[in-house]
Design brief:
The strands form 2 sheets. This protein has a 9-stranded mixed beta sheet with strand order 5-4-1-8-9-10-11-12-13, with helices on both faces. The protein has a 4-stranded mixed beta sheet with strand order 3-2-6-7. A hairpin with a 5-residue loop joins strand 11 and strand 12 (227-230). By secondary structure, the chain is an alpha/beta fold. It starts with a strand and ends in a 7-residue tail after the last helix. Helix content is 31%, strand content 23%. The radius of gyration is 19 Å and the shape is globular.
Length: 315
């Protein structure tokens, strides 16, 4: 079985649902005087963080996965929860002088989102030494968190010959252009949603074909419109898998990443890997928020077969 490691944030999420449009409350002609407030009738608290969400989804697919990052003095119960799910937390540090990172995510009726994030313990996160594990790791997924740790993890993977996938999110804005180019260079793949890709492209100053000179794959996700996987020779468009209901889109991208990287790590055809990610994401949007507590692997395979007319390879 492949061994995956996810580097990134481990956080608490507060999810608020607003019955209306955020945009309706904003006058674009008076942005310098912006002062808005939204009353939400729905609030839930979840265990979250990009790395924790992605690792949880790897575990749903019965993959051998670990996580690296930091939690604060209030995060020990969270680590026990991850361990009980079968996730290796030996590379997670507990920083008693901080609180665990916390995200406050508001979603309106049009699926627009506004997020506030307090990094807490992630301020001091350091990349782990993976020298003794380089023979056992299939892929490291470098997901958004402390940009210094992200750079350290990518550089360490380069030095040790460990394949890594760069998932910068909106953290690309925190990198210098040279550091960003060094991090992209040598990666197995770069993955981003459409908005994140626009930020990354601008920060790099490269077009898509130029990015492909420095990485193996460029993967851009488009929500309900699926995802595109670009190689140096081909562009593969993969349709989204329809969900039975839409409750909250938060965490769908993390589920997609876990499925996609699982397929890549297992040596699947790229189209099948993307379809696995899309199928898993279709279940994530049916949950109140990450992580998914209930998941039926057979039902996911059936949904993927219905959507694509073909059976995915066995995990």
């Amino acid at each position: 079985m492949s061994k995956f490691l996810v580097a990134g944030s481990i956080a608490y999420d507060m999810l608020l649902a607003y019955d209306g449009s955020f945009a309706a409350g904003i006058d674009v002609d008076k942005l310098d005087e912006l002062s808005v407030g939204y009353v939400t009738r729905h609030l839930v608290k979840h265990h979250g963080g990009t790395a924790a969400n992605i690792a949880w989804n790897f575990a749903l697919l019965n993959q051998d996965v670990g996580i690296t990052g930091s939690v604060g003095s209030d995060g020990k119960d969270y680590l026990e929860r991850l361990k009980n799910k079968g996730i290796d937390v030996s590379h997670v540090s507990v920083r008693e002088e901080h609180v665990t990172p916390t995200a406050i995510i508001g979603t309106d009726s049009g699926e627009r989102q506004i997020t506030f994030f307090h990094p807490g313990a992630d301020f001091d996160t350091q990349a782990p030494d993976l020298t003794k594990r380089k023979e056992t790791l299939s892929h490291v997924l470098v997901s958004p968190h402390n940009e210094v740790a992200m750079q350290q993890t990518a550089l360490h993977c380069q030095e040790q010959g460990i394949p890594y996938i760069f998932d910068p999110g909106q953290q690309s804005l925190q990198f210098s252009q040279d550091d960003l180019k060094r991090t992209v260079h040598g990666s197995t793949a770069v993955i981003a949603n459409a908005y994140e890709w626009s930020l990354l492209r601008e920060a790099l100053g490269w077009a898509a074909n130029e990015v492909m000179e420095y990485t193996g794959l460029l993967i851009v996700t488009h929500g309900e419109h699926g995802l595109n996987i670009q190689t140096s020779e081909d562009s593969i468009q993969i349709d989204a898998v329809p969900a039975q209901k839409l409750i909250n889109p938060t965490g769908a991208g993390d589920a997609l990443r876990a499925g996609l990287v699982t397929g890549i790590g297992l040596g699947w055809d790229l189209r099948d890997a993307g379809r696995l990610g899309a199928a898993l994401a279709s279940f994530a949007v049916e949950s109140e928020g990450p992580p998914m507590e209930e998941f039926d692997l057979e039902a996911m395979y059936k949904r993927a077969e219905d959507a694509y007319g073909e059976v995915l390879p066995a995990l």
